[in-house]
Design goal:
Helix 3 (62-73) packs parallel to helix 5 and helix 9 (168-179) packs across helix 10 (184-198). Strands 12, 13, 14, 15, 16, 17 and 20 form a 7-stranded antiparallel beta sheet that branches. Strands 3, 4, 5, 6, 7 and 8 form a 6-stranded mixed beta sheet that branches. A 5-stranded mixed beta sheet has the order 1-11-10-2-9, with helices on one face. Helix content is 39%, strand content 21%. The protein has 20 helices and 20 strands. The relative contact order is 0.08. It has 3 domains: 3-158, DNA ligase i, domain 1 (Orthogonal Bundle), CATH 1.10.3260; 232-427, 2-Layer Sandwich (D-amino Acid Aminotransferase, Chain A, domain 1); 433-559, OB fold (Dihydrolipoamide Acetyltransferase, E2P) (Beta Barrel). The longest helix is centred in the first third of the chain and has 15 residues, at 19-33. The chain is α+β, with helices and mostly antiparallel strands and 563 residues long. Bound molecules: adenosine-5'-triphosphate. Residues 230-231, 251-254, 258, 273, 303, 344, 380, 407, 426 line the site of adenosine-5'-triphosphate (ATP).
């Protein structure tokens, strides 16, 4: 197949922003693509050569792309820079130079999709000495054979900036349109469910093109991430039982992060809820799984919770999020912030998918295969009850020991990947909202370097302001009036009265509404109280500092049962 056929589709897609039109264009193309060599070519429609969960990159920067244009087309680097300053899109620059060069010679491109796919794939695997030169050679080779338009899309693909607007949802619906035009709606749902199971467009495409039976046969495989099942939210125990039936299983809602543990023979891989592969960041979790879980192959669903290595106290999610991001010095961080794995589901075991098995049976298996060790790995703490009084007691105890709330689970439910279907419900305290004034702030780091990104907020006490916490979430990076770090920084800078390193004091003028989960006594702030999980919900230019919450409101809130 000629790459030109892909380019025609990119062009057609970029000319419309209407979803239905895009779907039609794609559906026609997918029917054609079906008979070609390789289902993986479908990734190219999104500017990729691997499934979305595979985080490997081409590793081509804008500079390198310019070098490749220089090497592949013999244009001087200064000319490329000059054009870049004028046009700003390297794809278009590549198109322009290629067209100029090949115009006169009646050039007609014979560039094959397989060639483009292969060269792009190789870029992801090159490592070590001479990497840059080898990458340049693969890209220049493609540009040397491409037409102007082809060059544009090759370069845009390399820079992960295809600009044709094909999101995963459109592609899924286009598959339904292409292969099941008579029952499009029903099949779109099935296609979505299969996608959530495999998260791989090529597998989905191949099955869909063969028909409904083939789609139904698609199975989970350890090592390939599955989208997790999600809870719906309820506000009362009674409501939880209404949805899940009686009796139901009750578990603590741990404040860590969701981890899918995959084992296939010797190979163990760990994925987050967003399908990010975090195996390298958590060698301690890999070890715990190797030594504490029986079985040749499995997929386990769990919450990894961080704790302080010295005090053995659990830490909130914010702390453990450093471990997800950390790519170096991992051993030192493990020593400081180990994790405990609270396993709450099993989706696959020794060669068999269990997603259609009832939860209670899956749970029984789970308990058999895990050898429990405190602070390392354990089945999630669970009770099964039909008593609302017992459930309430369980909930209150969970909050007392600092958990976020509880999860209630339906015993005879299957596992439904990627959905909030009501087989699990979560119950947490209501989020409340207080108006507070900003009295101090801290500069962010890295990308947020120039901005004040965390804010010390205070309430009123006898005509003064006393601090009740530090809030750093809720704002966007850039936006209007006070709802972004950028805008908030502009509001606060003129109010600075004192600077100490990263920290500034500001005169109390800016009022914000802050939501939080609960308020606890705390020696860290001058009010003697601190908010848990605070988040700015609104900037309140309409409020004055004398309108804000008082220490009495805070005391009342801390006793209000929002434990
Ligand atoms: P929010 O903070 O708004 O409640 P969340 O990040 O907790 O959102 P939700 O989808 O509302 O996300 O809650 C589900 C999450 O709760 C799961 O993804 C999982 O990470 C976590 N969780 C903690 N304990 C359990 C448990 N015992 N069973 C299932 N999920 C649990």
């Amino acid at each position: 197949m000629l790459y030109a056929e892909f380019v025609d589709i990119y062009e057609a897609l970029s000319k419309t922003s209407k979803r239905l039109e895009k779907e039609k264009i794609l559906a026609n193309f997918l029917r054609k693509l079906k008979d070609k060599d390789d289902p993986q070519w479908i990734y190219l429609l999104q500017g990729r050569v691997v499934p979305e969960y595979d985080s490997r990159e081409f590793g081509i920067s804008r500079q390198l792309a310019m070098k490749a244009i220089h090497a592949g087309l013999g244009v001087s680097e200064s000319e490329i820079h000059k054009q870049f300053n004028k046009i700003g899109d390297i794809g278009e620059i590549a198109e322009m130079f290629v067209s100029k060069k090949k115009q006169s010679s009646l050039f007609s491109s014979k560039l094959q999709v397989s060639k483009v796919f292969d060269n792009l794939s190789k870029l992801m695997t090159i490592e070590g000495k001479g990497t840059v030169e080898r990458k340049l050679a693969y890209v220049s080779e493609l540009l040397g054979q491409a037409s102007g338009l082809e060059a544009k899309y090759i370069v845009r693909t390399l820079l992960s900036d295809l600009r044709v607007g094909v999101a995963e949802g459109i592609l899924r619906d286009s598959l339904a349109e292409a292969f099941f035009p008579q029952e499009k709606k029903e099949m779109a749902d099935i296609i979505e469910a299969v996608y959530d199971l495999v998260n791989d467009l090529a597998i989905l495409f191949e099955a869909a093109s063969k028909g409904k039976k083939a789609l139904e046969k698609v199975e989970i495989v350890p090592g390939r991430p599955v989208k997790v099942m999600l809870p719906v939210k309820v506000n009362a125990i009674g409501e939880a039982f209404e949805i899940c039936g009686k009796p139901a299983a009750l578990e603590h809602k741990y404040d860590g992060f969701r981890m899918m543990i995959n084992k296939n023979g010797k190979e163990i891989s760990l994925f987050t809820r967003k399908l990010e592969n975090v195996t390298k960041q958590f060698p301690d979790a890999v070890k715990a799984v190797q030594s504490h879980v029986k079985g040749e192959s499995f997929i386990l669903d769990c919450e990894a919770v961080g704790y302080d290595a010295v005090t053995k106290k659990y830490k909130p999610f914010e702390a453990i999020s450093q471990r997800i991001k950390r790519k170096y010095d991992i051993d030192a961080l493990i020593k400081k912030l180990p994790v405990e794995l609270n396993i709450f589901d099993v989706l696959y075991y020794n060669g068999k998918s269990l997603i259609d098995m009832h939860f209670i049976e899956r749970r029984k298996l789970l308990e058999k295969i895990i050898s429990h060790e405190k602070l390392v790995i354990r089945p999630s703490f669970q009770i099964i009850t039909d008593s609302e009084a017992k459930a309430k007691e369980f909930y209150e105890h969970a909050l007392e020991i600092g958990e976020e709330g509880i999860m209630v689970k339906k015993l005879d439910a299957p596992y439904r990947q990627g959905r909030r279907v009501g087989y699990i419900v979560k119950l947490k305290p209501l989020v409340a909202d207080l108006d507070l004034v900003i009295v101090g702030a801290e500069y962010g780091s890295g990308k947020r370097g120039g901005w004040l990104t965390s804010y010390i907020v205070a309430c009123r006490k006898n005509g003064e302001f006393v601090e009740v916490g530090k809030v750093s979430s809720g704002l966007k990076e850039k936006e209007e009036e006070g709802t972004s770090y950028d805008a908030m920084t502009k509001l606060l800078k003129p109010l600075i009265t004192e600077t100490k390193g990263n920290y500034v004091k500001v005169s109390p003028k800016i009022v914000v509404s802050v939501t939080y989960q609960n308020i606890q006594r705390s020696p860290s702030y001058s009010s003697g109280y601190a908010m848990r999980f605070p988040r700015i919900s609104h900037y309140r230019p309409d409020r004055k500092p004398h309108d804000i919450a008082t220490i009495h409101d805070i005391e009342k809130e801390s006793r209000s049962g929002r434990l």
